[in-house]
Design goal:
The protein has twelve helices and 14 strands. With 378 residues, the protein is of the alpha+beta class.
Length: 378
């Protein structure tokens, strides 16, 4: 049967079908970690996601004989394009069966939309901003993912190469063994850094409300500073920051958060980690209700073997001065107390030496690699 491509209007019902296709495609795959459907609906809804203040998007689904066989989102981030001077179309939220006819039809629809909008190139998978999923898995297909990463079958990158896409950039991920104690090198560096730069660790955050009120804005402003030069970074706007403060800081496990401040209590470094929710999300298949929230809550509160290192951000003027050692000198004893055996780094650009150097004193293995693919539209 011929492939039918349908543009998707972002109503709640349509978005649920769009999201469910991506989840159902991996049914029974023990490495795939589904997103929360309610979060994905929020991300893809123009009325809920502040990124639509500077982004355009069009979703498409592919059908054969009335059955869904693929999906793709075409996104234009005008803020990033203005910064780079490039007319780039992003593709994301992309899943498909292993069928060249399906893949070609999906990408043809996205590319046509992008050309009509004046775009010169297509790159992805990427989302609206860096807080969305990005990077197609090209190594580590037999490794369970995290709540922050995409999973895809091995045929995905083969289809990309068949269509003429090339490498744009790569991200790597590490699994570290949580040590029995803070490495001596970390302790020595941490003590030197505290004294030399008059820094201190806030190691007893009293409440999530206190964190949001006192440092919520500072955390996301610091992320903007620290990540500004990274590939494809889309600076968070005030509306996005307000949105993410409410969305993320209210669910963190506070003892897994580390804040470093200077003598004036200004934030210079932050490390945010969270007990792995991968198994809980697999068990609930993207649905918090009626009972999925119970497993997620247990994963957050009870012992878990794995901790996800969601982000580390350090003020640019403190880079390579040992602030990272100060963060982990506080967090490692917490990880040991909570019974974590492994830590997941989550994606980091493979050329980002500053980030990768912070793992050099840990037993680790690079177990996943993901890629952004690019192709000219002209």
């Amino acid at each position: 049967m011929a492939i039918e491509i349908r543009p998707i209007d972002p109503t709640r019902g349509n978005l649920k079908k769009f999201i469910r296709f991506g989840i159902d495609l991996y049914k029974g795959n023990d490495c795939y970690v589904p997103p929360l459907i309610m979060d994905e609906i929020g991300t893809l809804s123009p009325g809920k996601n502040p990124a639509f203040d500077f982004c355009e998007a069009q979703l498409f689904m592919a059908y054969r004989d009335g059955k869904p066989v693929g999906r793709i989102g075409a996104i234009i981030n005008t803020a990033v394009n203005s910064r780079t001077g490039r007319r780039t179309l992003r593709f994301g939220f992309c899943d498909f069966i292993d069928d060249a006819e399906v893949v070609d039809a999906l990408f043809a629809a996205a590319e046509k939309w992008g050309r009509e909008k004046g775009m010169d190139e297509i790159v992805g998978p990427m989302g609206f901003t860096d807080l969305d999923y990005e990077g197609m898995l090209i190594e580590g297909f037999d490794e369970m993912g995290t709540m922050s990463t995409l999973y895809n079958y091995p045929y995905y990158p083969k289809q990309m190469e068949r269509m003429g896409f090339k490498k744009e950039t790569d991200w790597v991920e590490y699994r570290m063994t949580v040590p029995d104690a803070v490495p001596d090198k970390h302790l020595r560096i941490a003590n030197i850094v505290k004294q030399k730069y008059n820094l201190r660790v806030i190691d007893n955050i009293p409440s999530r409300k206190w964190l949001k009120d006192k440092y919520g804005l500072a955390i996301f402003n610091l992320i903007n500073e620290a990540y500004d030069g990274l590939y494809g970074y889309s600076p968070l706007t005030p509306r996005q920051i307000e949105h993410y403060i409410d969305m993320y800081l209210g669910v963190l496990r506070l003892d897994c958060v580390s804040l470093i401040v200077d003598k004036d209590d200004a934030l210079v470094g932050v490390g945010i980690s969270i007990p792995s929710l991968a198994r809980a999300l697999q068990n609930c298949r993207g649905r918090l209700f009626p009972f999925g929230w119970v497993g997620v809550l247990k994963a957050l509160k009870q012992q878990n073997d794995v901790v996800d290192l969601l982000l580390v951000a350090v003020k640019p003027e403190y880079l390579s001065k040992g602030v990272n050692a100060l963060l982990f000198a506080q967090l490692i004893p917490v990880y040991i107390k909570l019974g974590f055996k492994w830590a997941e780094s989550n994606p980091e650009l493979d050329e980002n030496a500053n980030v990768q150097n912070q793992w050099q004193y840990f037993e680790r293995r690079q177990h996943r690699r993901r890629r952004a693919f690019i192709k000219s539209l002209r």
